[in-house]
Amino acid sequence: MTARQDLLSGLALTVFKLNGRFLDVADALAVPVGLTAAHWQVLGAVLESPLSVAGIAREMGITRQSVQRIADLLAAKGMVEYRPNPAHKRAKLVAPTPEGLEAVRRIDPAHAAFADRLCGALGDDRAAEVLDALRDLAGALDALRAEDGPG
């Protein structure tokens, strides 16, 4: 294996491990308010403005089918609602309800406490550097995907 293959493998395995750890943290923060990490992820995607299921999937890097399943569950719990989409007749927009917004608000104190612990462990400057590096990595992967075209 080449040094670059080792780097790619190390990057991928570390990101996979981080994904699992962040999902564990998100579940620990969300479960006390009746949500899961996946519920919180979908709700979080539409806090600023409603999005279609496909838009949420693109934003979160997960499959459209997964988002649809979670959005349907959240709608059944009264946490989101489907709204007409002026840009597409069949692809409704997902928007949080007051109940969904309240659930996310109730996560906030535990979220803030964990953020303080994590940034305290890393240091604020280092945490910001790591975030920048992860954004650079995501941008590079997006650019390579665009070069490769659809599929």
UniProtKB/TrEMBL annotation:
Residues 4-139 form the HTH marR-type domain. InterPro entries: HTH_MarR-typ (IPR000835), MarR/SlyA-like (IPR039422), WH-like_DNA-bd_sf (IPR036388), WH_DNA-bd_sf (IPR036390). It comes from the Bacteria. SUPFAM superfamilies: Winged helix' DNA-binding domain (SSF46785). PANTHER family: MARR FAMILY REGULATORY PROTEIN (PTHR33164:SF99), TRANSCRIPTIONAL REGULATOR, MARR FAMILY (PTHR33164). This is MarR family transcriptional regulator. It comes from Glycomyces endophyticus. The lineage of its organism: Bacteria, Bacillati, Actinomycetota, Actinomycetes, Glycomycetales.
